[in-house]
Amino acid sequence: MKKHYLRRYIISSYILIWFLIIFVAGTASMVFHAPPVIMWVVRNLLAWSPTLLLLIGWKFFRPDETRKAFVKRCFSGKVKPLYLLLSFGLTFGISVLSLFIFSLIEGKPMLSYINLGTTALPLSIFLSFTSGPTGEELGWRGFMREEFNKKYSFLKSSVCQGLVWCFWHTLLWVVDSEFTDWRAIPYIISNIVVITSITVLMNIFLERYNNLVYSVLLHFGFNIIYVFLDAGILFFVILTVLYLVITPIAVLIRNKRVEKLQNNSN
Fold first, then answer.
1. Are the beta carbons of 95 and 190 closer than 8 angstroms?
2. Sign for the pseudo-dihedral over CA of 216, 92, 114, 235
3. Considering only CA atoms, which of 236, 217, 216 is closest in space to residue 226?
């Protein structure tokens, strides 16, 4: 009888994140009134939950392989500095371009939408890097990507991964977002489109260079600006449009490269 390890992992990861948000983050915030830095540490724990779940419950998700062999394979691909820079710059650049367009429409300087807050800048960057970018990738782009790739084509697999990753954030859209009125609708649509698009872009890099360092930097390039961003819903609408333009172009370039490699091998 075939075991549905992927389904088991997805359901478990959703249950775990909901438990952590409600009972750990909720308690820290509403009962103990934890300061921002402590809440950031708590959020990092939430972000690490897919990887911790996978590694601690390994025998329930991949019993026919060792953890060491799996982790080694996830970081086995070549690391090229230029492509590392490109992976970070791609998502970071799209966010900066979105902010630039948004600032032009609003008639204000770009920096007026950047709020450094009360946390020291180096600590903010460190906490951002050690949250989703390093915490989620082994679970999502490591385990889940391999499992979906066994079942579907590149694009269908990427979209499925993106949707799972996207809706894993569902409760966070409610408890950790300032958009609780009508703006919640374009905000949720933006999350669905952008997170799915980023997954496609990550998988383009990982298909060519099977090393999670690329997806970590791509994830970090996307996340880092939102640590300091204080912009309206129009920013997210612009961001959505840019990803809807850039991602299909990236897929077309990827398809042409794959087709060329196939023709050369024949």
1. no
2. negative
3. 236
Q: How far apart are CA 10 and CA 84, in angstroms?
A: 29
Per-domain boundaries in the chain: 78-265
Biggest distance spanned by C-alpha atoms of the chain: 65
pTM of the model: 0.94
DSSP tag of 107: T
**Is the predicted pLDDT of residue 2 greater than 70, yes or no?**
no
Provide the phi-psi class of 97: left if phi over 0, else alpha when psi is between -120 and 50, else beta: alpha
Closest CA to 212 of 10, 71, 5: 71
Q: Which residues of 66-79 are buried (b: 16+ CB within 10 A; e: fewer)?
A: eeeebeeebeebee
pLDDT tens per residue, range 57-76: 999 999 999 999 999 999 99
CA nearest neighbour of 201 among 59, 43, 122, 88: 88
Alpha helices in the chain (DSSP H): 5-19, 26, 36-56, 58-61, 67-74, 81-106, 121-129, 132-135, 137, 145-151, 154-167, 170-175, 184-208, 212-223, 233-265
CA distance 73 to 77: 8
Give the amino acid at 226.
Answer: Y
Q: Using DSSP, state whether 117 is helix, strand or coil.
A: coil
Task: Give the C-alpha separation, 138 to 73, whole Å.
Answer: 11
